[in-house]
Structure formats: structure tokens, C-alpha cells
Amino acid sequence: MTTDPLEVAVHVADRLARPEDSGLRAGESWWPQSLAHGAPGVALLHVELAAHGAAPWDRVHAWLCAATWATVTGGPDSHLYYGAPAVAHVVACAADHQPGAYRRALDALNRQITADALSRARAGHARIDADTLPTLSEFDVIRGLSGIGAYLLRRDPGGAALTAVLEYLVRLTEPITVDGETLPGWWAQVGPSGRSDPALPGGHANHGMAHGVGGPLALLALAALHGVTVTGHHDAIARILTWLDQWRTHNGWPYWVTRPQLHAGQLMATPVRRPSWCYGTVGLARAQQLAALATGDSTRRRHAENALLRAVTDPMHLLAATDDSLCHGRAGFAHLALRAAADAAPDPGVQLRAAALRLLEVMHPPGTDAKDTAGQLLTLAGPEFLEGTAGIALTFAATASPSGPVTGWDTCLLIS
Question: How far is 350 from 348, CA to CA, in rounded Å?
Fold first, then answer.
């Protein structure tokens, strides 16, 4: 690139300097506490740039004030992408680079998150004891215990709350028998939306990083890589990997498996689908690379890296990407490729990094003015983190450091 990618991020942040000028839906009661669509997600961009020395810290404070002007939600309505864990993730990223700042607020948030994690883990065990199926929001990254576990792994890796979450996830991976039929423990009776879906009679086994078993796999792997394990930890990783091996196709992994497919023991069709972070091969390949690193499986690591490389270079896969977002677009492809490249064997590592930079060039062609690119991205995508320009800008900013994001903002994606 002829332009420093960090410049794109800086210009986006300049356009989002003040919450009142951002275009976010401030009239909606949920927006201050939504990491995906509200103030915390934009605050992450300002935190990362301030930590780089590329933007002022007073913008961070302004956005954190916008995120916390009302009582922060805790309890069963909170999760990594809304309420106390969402706000705490951003505050923690800032506090790591502002020693002594936000200490009281972070302590209060951590107490709430710990209590909620312990309560939700107990509820998960009780549900398993009753031989009933889980909801996706019980265990997934966006709304469930995998997401809360991601925060705990970073902030309190030796604490009782993370232990409780990991012990619950180990049990989640064990088969469950319901009405005489044995199913994977993460089988959901409802559809991906969390509601009954007539297109999925009998429910489904969700594979997504955002809403499926990819999240538990990634958290178990990352915890093991940090030296945090519980009884049955590696067995749980092996059970998920065995399941994913069973359903892998030449196009990668399906988004989910239905009850008819489970009974038939095979997929009915294997269309090319968007290989994104939230669903598809990009996210699942990164989770499996982490699992391979945690278990010392060099063969699986190479297979995962090659699958990810194909997903971000194959023209048919790239055509399935319809936007630039972090969640399910080109920025997500690029960011996960960069993260995987740092942990990959030399040859796929070089190729993954090159592929990531090519994807960024699609969004910001060489010779294009960074300010113009920032304006165009904001016009097309809006300001949000997960599906908008704040997340895209964070991906550009990540290229400024050889080791990736300096604040670790992407731990909320369970990829690092």
C-alpha cells in the first residue's frame, strides 16, 4: 500500500470524534451499552488509536461517558455485547494503557460480571442435569458464557468464575439424551435466531463462532494456551474437533447441521457460503488453529491454516462476501487472516498475511486518499463496531503493529 492503513483508521475516528455527531441512534435506550451497534464499539476504536498515540484520550473519555450515562445493565440481560461485560471490555482496554484510570468503575463492573458468570454457570449445570437442550444464548460468544469467559480469561484468569465457565463448557460438549435420542450437548431445539424455525424441524447443531460451538472451542483452546484448564478440558476440545471433522466438506464447514442431516449422517448439499467470522470457515478455522496449538497437533494446525487461506483467497468464497464489515465481510476476513498468520507455519503465514493486505487494498486501493476512504466507508457502512466502520477501521489500525492490536480489543471475538 502507498498509504499507511493507520491513516484510514485515524480519519474514521476524526469523523466519529464526538458521540453526538456520530450518527448512532442515541434516542434508542440500548445504544449506550451495545458493543456491536453502540457507544462501546466506537469507543474501542478511540482506545486503540489513543494507545498508538494517534488520537487524544479525551475522545475515549467522552465515549465512555456516553456508554455509562445510565445505569449499566447486569444480570441475565447482560452479555459480552451488551451491558456490564460490553462496557467492561472497553474500560479494561483503556485502563491497561492509563494506569490508575477507571479503577473503581472497573472493580464494580468486575464484581457484577463475576456474580453473573457464576449464576449462569450454575443454571447451565441445572439444565444439563434436567436432560433438556440449551438455548444458543446459554453458551455462545455474543450472548452466552463463551463471551463472558473471554472477558474473564483476560481480566481474571485464575478466578472462580472462569473455572466455573470452563467446567460448564466441558459438560456442554458431552452427549445429551433427550426423548430417547442422543445428541451433541450443544444441540439447540430452536433455530439460529433463537426462536423456533419451521425450516429446522428438530433444531440444529450450530457451528458459528458468534452463535455456535466455535465459541466454546475457541475459549477452551485459548484458556489452555494461557495455562488455565479444568478436569476434562482437553477431552472437551477433542469432542468438538471430532464433530467438526465429521461434517467438514470441500467447501469448509456448514453453518449448522439439521436433524434430518444428523439422521442421514451426511449433508444434503454443500453450497459455497460466506466464510466469515460469525459463521463459516474463517472463524472456525481460526478456532481450530488455536485448538491445534493448545494440543500440539501440527497436522491439524496446517489443515486449519490451509482452510483459512483458501477461504480468504478463493474467488468463489470472496464473491460470497457482500460488505466490508468485521462480522461477516472483508475486514473480518483480513483481520482473522492476520491473527492466524502470526501463529502459522512459515509458508501459510506469509500467504495469509499477503492475502489480508490484499483484502485491505480492496477497501482502500493504493493511491486512494485515506480521508476519502474513511468518508466512503462511513457512508456505506455506518459507524458501528461489528457491522460498521469502527470495526473496519480497527482492522486497518491492527496492521500498524507487528503483534496485532495493542489493546487486545479483538479478544471479544475470541480469536486472541
Answer: 5
φ, ψ for residue 31 (rounded to 5)?
Answer: -65, -35
For residue 391, give the amino acid letter.
Answer: G
Q: One-letter amino acid identity for 357? A: L
Low-confidence ranges of the chain (pLDDT < 50): 1-2
Distances (CA, A) of 109 to 104, 159, 272: 9, 15, 42
The residue type of 240 is: I
Considering only CA atoms, which of 316, 308, 311 is closest in space to residue 348?
A: 308
Query: In whole angstroms, how far apart are CA 16 and each of 41, 64, 314, 370?
Result: 11, 13, 34, 15
d(CA 395, CA 5): 9
DSSP state of 253: -
Inter-axis angle of helices 84-95 and 103-129, to 10 degrees?
140
Alpha-helix runs per DSSP H in 255-414: 259-264, 281-295, 298-313, 315-319, 330-343, 346-363, 370-381, 389-398
Q: What is the pLDDT of residues 95-115, one digit of tens each?
A: 999 988 999 999 999 999 999
CA 291 – CA 47 distance, rounded (Å) = 29
pTM: 0.97
For domain 5-413, the CATH class is: mainly alpha
Distance CA 368, CA 355 (A): 19
pLDDT in tens, 118-143: 999 999 999 999 999 999 999 999 99
pLDDT attached to residue 2: 46
What pLDDT is stored for residue 245 in this prediction?
97
CA–CA gap between residue 389 and residue 326 (Å, rounded): 9
From the list 236, 132, 227, the residue with the least C-alpha distance to 174 is 236
